[in-house]
Design goal:
The chain is α/β, with parallel strands linked by helices. The protein has an 8-stranded mixed beta sheet with strand order 8-9-10-7-11-12-13-14. The relative contact order is 0.18. Bound molecules: nicotinamide-adenine-dinucleotide. The site of nicotinamide-adenine-dinucleotide has 25 residues, from helix 1.
């Protein structure tokens, strides 16, 4: 029998518990060896709930544990550079949440640490692991030339009634509301815009790269506070990212990829909705008197976060390459810094 993939965890806040540890605990063939959080009481309770063997007192102990193959390091983006680099230098594969870091320079240091260690650094763009999204990518490859892609985002109920994580009243490092992680030289308005971009648009830049199979080039940004339209190009295709204000009972996020003979629509589900995958509608104009078709792809019950966890276990066992390597997410940070610097300064 294969040796189980042995994992460590750093950070067991909302996402660490609900989107990551809970999924790894359900995957056969994985040993949950150790957990660290500065909130030690919370870590003990979470470890007991999910069957994690040990609670260590520091990231250094996880980095030094020779049995641990990979670490799921989930914390606020401005805090994760140092622990991620320590873990990579300790010889662990590492997955972090999106965005990769709070600025491109920090992201580059993380990517460089992974390269030097010969380990994988993975960024948690879980939407690229969504079963519907992956089906859409297969269809796009078969459809040929892409004329345009646009993504409309307004968001909505992202938690989808998932339940409550374990919490304690222990102190933790501050994330939101501090600016120490910001790229230098941004005005307060640009800082606000940048925070939003790296929190939300990091997913969208990842979706475009995944679906279109090419890198985006930034062209221009058209703000209308608190919303904006951003224009990019990807090869010959025009790419548009639109955000607007809209009351919504559900989760509104939809990509349309346009070809000469029709389009493909992909609508990711609310991020925390277990067992839902992206809905895909494919329209193809009939040729020379043939009937046009509108096909709906239903990928079945699955959750992008669970599929991401399964894939990271494969990466740790050497059976798969990362779908979203840190380097991609670093390039996205560069792009979003460019967007923020072009955003009106006041
Ligand atoms: N993929 C998505 O759709 C999605 C959705 C929401 C949030 N996120 C990302 O997840 C990140 C984490 O969000 P969260 O709600 O879990 O945050 P959180 O604050 O609830 O949890 C972070 C945990 O990390 C711990 N921590 C901080 N520094 C530490 C250190 N050096 N060593 C050990 N533990 C440390 C904190 O004590 C806390 O328990 C967010 O910053 C965001 O980028 C992603």
């Amino acid at each position: 029998m294969d040796k189980p993939v042995t994992l460590g965890f750093v950070g067991c806040g909302n996402m660490g518990q609900m989107a990551h540890i809970a999924n790894y605990a359900e995957i056969p063939g994985i040993r949950l060896k150790a957990l660290v959080d500065v909130k030690q009481e919370q870590a003990r309770k979470v470890a007991a709930r999910h069957g994690i063997e040990k609670v260590y007192g520091s990231v250094a102990e996880i980095a030094a544990d020779p049995e641990i193959d990979g670490v799921v390091c989930i914390m606020f983006w401005g805090l994760q550079e140092e622990p991620a680099i320590q873990l990579l230098r300790g010889g662990k594969h590492v997955i972090v949440e999106k965005p990769l870091a709070g600025n491109a320079a920090a992201g580059q240091r993380m990517v460089e640490a992974a390269r030097q260690a010969g380990k994988h650094l993975v960024c948690g763009y879980m939407k690229c692991h969504d079963a519907g999204m992956q089906w859409a990518r297969q269809r796009i490859v078969q459809r040929g030339r892409i004329n345009q892609a646009h993504l409309f985002f307004t968001g909505g109920d992202w938690w989808a009634n998932l339940g409550k994580p374990i919490t304690t009243s222990e102190e933790a490092p501050q994330g939101w509301g501090t600016e120490h992680w910001m790229p230098p030289g941004l005005s307060p308005a640009q800082q606000r815009a940048f925070s939003f971009f790296i929190n939300i648009y990091s997913h969208h830049l990842g979706i475009f790269r995944f679906l279109l199979g090419s890198e985006l080039k930034f062209q221009s940004i058209h703000p209308e506070d608190p919303c904006e339209t951003v224009l990019f190009s990807a090869g010959e295709a025009q790419v548009v990212l639109m955000r607007t204000r809209m009351a919504c009972d559900w989760w509104e996020e939809k990509v349309r990829v346009v070809f000469d003979d029709g389009y493909l629509d992909v609508a990711p589900p609310p991020p925390m909705a277990r067992n839902l995958s992206a809905r895909v509608d494919e329209y193809r104009k009939g040729q020379e008197g043939q009937t046009s078709t509108l096909t709906q792809g239903i990928a079945g019950w699955s959750w992008a976060f669970k599929r991401q966890a399964e894939h990271f276990a494969e990466v740790c066992s050497g059976r798969a390459e990362p779908l979203v390597p840190g380097e991609h997410a670093w390039r996205d940070l560069l792009l979003m810094e460019e967007m923020a610097r072009t955003y009106p300064a006041d």
